[in-house]
Design goal:
The structure is a single chain. It is built from 12 helices and no strands. Helix 8 packs parallel to helix 10 and helix 11 packs antiparallel against helix 12. It starts with a helix and ends with a helix.
Length: 199
C-alpha cells in the first residue's frame, strides 16, 4: 500500500496531481514515506512541499536523522524546506546544521528559517553541560547574524533572540543587544520587531 502511494508521487505529471499524491502519502503516517516526503522538497512545487513540511513536522523526532542526512547542498529551495522542518520539529540534534545554515548559507530563505528555529530548540532534551554549551553557541550565532547586512536576516535573528531570551542565563546579553539595535538599526521594521521582543 505504501509502495503504491510512493509510486503515485513519482508518476504525478501535473502540479495538482503532485499535491494530491503527497497529501495521500502524508495521510499514511508511515515512516517508510519519509525519504519520499523529503524528496518532494526538490520538486519545485511549493504547495506539495508545504504538505510535506507539515507531514514531516507531525512525525517529529523520528524524521530528524533522515532530514539531516538528506539536506540538499545544491537546491537551496529544497534546503530551505528541510531547514524549516527541522526548525519546526525543534530537535537539538539539528543544532549544528541550523547554526551553519544561519551563519553561512548563501540563500536568505535558508538563513532566515535557521535563525528563527535556533531560538526554539527543545533544550530540555540535552543534558548539562551540553545544554549550556549549545545555548552559548546559539547565542553567539544569533548575535553575529543580528549584524548582517541583509535586513531580513537581522529580523530573523531578532525572532530567534526573543525565543532564546526565555533562558534566564542568556537574558542579559540578549537584552543588551536588542536595546543596541533599537538605537542603531536603520530599518524601521526591525526596530518595531525589537520593540515587540523587548516588550
Amino acid at each position: 500500500m505504501t509502495d503504491e502511494l510512493i509510486h503515485a508521487v513519482t508518476l504525478a505529471d501535473t502540479p495538482e496531481k503532485m499535491v494530491a499524491a503527497v497529501q495521500n502519502l502524508a495521510a499514511a503516517e508511515d515512516i517508510a514515506v519519509i525519504p519520499t516526503l523529503i524528496a518532494v522538497f526538490g520538486y519545485n512545487n511549493p504547495a506539495a512541499a508545504a504538505v510535506a513540511v507539515t507531514a514531516l513536522t507531525a512525525m517529529g523526532e523520528i524524521a530528524v536523522p533522515q532530514l539531516l542526512s538528506e539536506i540538499d547542498d545544491y537546491n537551496y529551495g529544497a534546503r530551505a524546506y528541510s531547514i524549516r522542518t527541522l526548525a519546526a520539529i525543534a530537535d537539538p540534534r539539528a543544532l549544528d546544521v541550523l547554526i551553519t545554515a544561519a551563519a553561512t548559507d548563501f540563500a536568505p530563505s535558508v538563513r532566515r528559517a535557521a535563525a528563527k528555529g535556533l531560538g526554539n530548540l527543545n533544550w530540555h532534551q540535552l543534558n548539562s553541560p551540553h545544554r549550556e554549551t549549545a545555548q552559548q553557541k546559539t547565542l553567539e550565532t544569533l548575535l553575529l547574524i543580528s549584524q548582517d547586512l541583509e535586513w531580513s536576516i537581522r529580523y530573523a535573528a531578532v525572532v530567534g533572540l526573543q525565543a532564546l531570551a526565555q533562558i534566564p542565563d542568556l537574558q542579559q546579553p540578549i537584552q543588551a543587544r536588542l536595546q543596541q539595535m533599537l538605537v542603531t538599526d536603520q530599518e524601521k521594521a526591525i526596530r518595531a520587531r525589537v520593540q515587540l521582543a523587548i516588550a
